[in-house]
Input
Amino acid sequence: MHQVLLFDASGDTFLPPDRKSERRVWICQEISGLPLEEPAFAGAAHCPEVVLDRTHVEAALTGLGDLVDFIEETFRRGQLYVPVDELLGLADTDRLPLAMAPAGRLDIPQPTERSSPAVGADFLLVGEPTADLTVTGLAYRAPESLLVACTEGVIELHPLTGAARWLFRLPGCTSSPLPQPDGSVFVICGAALVKWHNGALTPVAGPFELPAHLLEGPDGQPWVLSGSGVTFGTGQSTLALTRAGDDLSDQSHYPLSFDAAVRAAVSLGERRFLLVADGHSATTDLKRGTGVGLGEDWIPTPVPHPHHAFATGPDQVALASGDGSGTRVLVRSLNLLTGLTGGGIDLALGRLHGVAYDVAGSTFLLGTLSGSDPVRPRHALIRLTGLHQGGPVALSSARPEPTSAEQRYDAVGLAARGEKRDYRIDDKPRESGGQADVFYAVHKATGEPVAFKKRKNPGPRATRRWRRELDCARAMGSHPGAMPILDADALATWYVMPWAEATAEDRRAQLADPEELRAMVLSVASALAASHEHGWVHRDITPANILLYDGRWRLADWGIARRPRGQTSAGGPLTETGVVFGTEGYAAPELARDAHKEATPASDIYSLARVVAWILTGTRPQPNVVLLPPSRKISSPVRRS
Output
């Protein structure tokens, strides 16, 4: 039996001690300053005690370890307090499983098989055969060293001499490390993101869906690509990008909508990313949403299974992967504006473990030599030149320049952190619906007016539906015909949109003009086409849900949208059979029978047509009224159209 007692930094007990407990666990916010020698911590023989601190709890919350295992191991060691670093094996730095020597000393042929004229390759280091080193990533660390991540920790390697040492031991590292200017290093360990600095380990973010890959985001921030996308239209996507902050409470999670096997991601500045996938890759702008646009905007991926990708210049990235034969690695440049493949190189490597590049424009590849023993492979370090063009990557020319309104709201999206206190909110709602209230608010940092939508019902079904609305709105937010989500809290109780100029309901007289109506219908229909392509059905197309923002009509309010087939929420369908669904008069007839199974894209088209009919006639649509005129004279032109 364990009794857990919580302490604050001053040593004040949050829960009273029970001296009759068999074993006692003290969990403190901070260890520094606590009187560990005092009687309160000095357990008698019949009542042994151990002390844990916040780092143990955070390590458990991020999936780095198990709190019960930490407690049991501390009891097993017979110590009052054991730092989480030691419990994870961080302090053991005796054995170094990596030994590499300059390639010029060995009689090994150059691994270059074929190369573009501008791309050169230098064979730098070759490792001794080893059976107990599994490399998981590579990174460049100023001034002149590489960091090699492996399943036992992170090694610092000199690229010219081969000199190596443990930077720190941490079993379970699964991704390339990310060094920072202050000397700290981020790395993925299991399902957690951790930070090492001056010998101390701090859990930062997690737990993440596996596989999880660490990448450098805007301004050097750590971002994590996690989970997997949905391929062939089946299953439920877990793909996401997460911005990590300074601690566990400061992370922003963005579920992604891209039905593809995404292998890597590249930051393109601000909050734009290239999602690199088998077959085709695509860009996403998290300021506007988490979708990737229509298929015609996707870019063919020039290598198979592209696990490694990095920016090499303005509008330019490089992708690297094995060719599937186990004997060759391909590296190709890709122009994101044209979608064309540029220079590249083929290397005689069996596997590619990591890619890194320095500020001077060199690209380092760490892999295993082709033909070496798969049980005891020989590692090779190669330096490529001619790929990296230098300069920041900016894709502003890949799409039209944003309007001033978009630029202003981009600033709100960039500052988003899920904090309600960032907004000055009116006391009374401007609109009140069945599921939420909409308040006028101002983003304090930018002064921009926003719509603050707050959920009414705190129940679990309402939470699931709200999260569904956020998922779909974010997936559609990058589409010009959809209303973007700018910010939201982690508990799914509110979210923020741009403040719309009007609804279609407000502007019926203006929309009665054929050109105005045509523009509205085309914009909403294009948003529906994109959502239907990904399997989403809106199910609530009404004049009140079509908003005018930045001179364009946009579709909003995905609160009762139906997920793509095969992606039903874990708690089961939210839609009940036989319950009238949607807005009366606008909802398609099939939504009254079984809105979950029978809803199709045609249901949305029906509702949009009802909106058009209301605009043209000024008469609210009535349910159960025959829509066809008595004469059948319209049948011929309908067939021809």
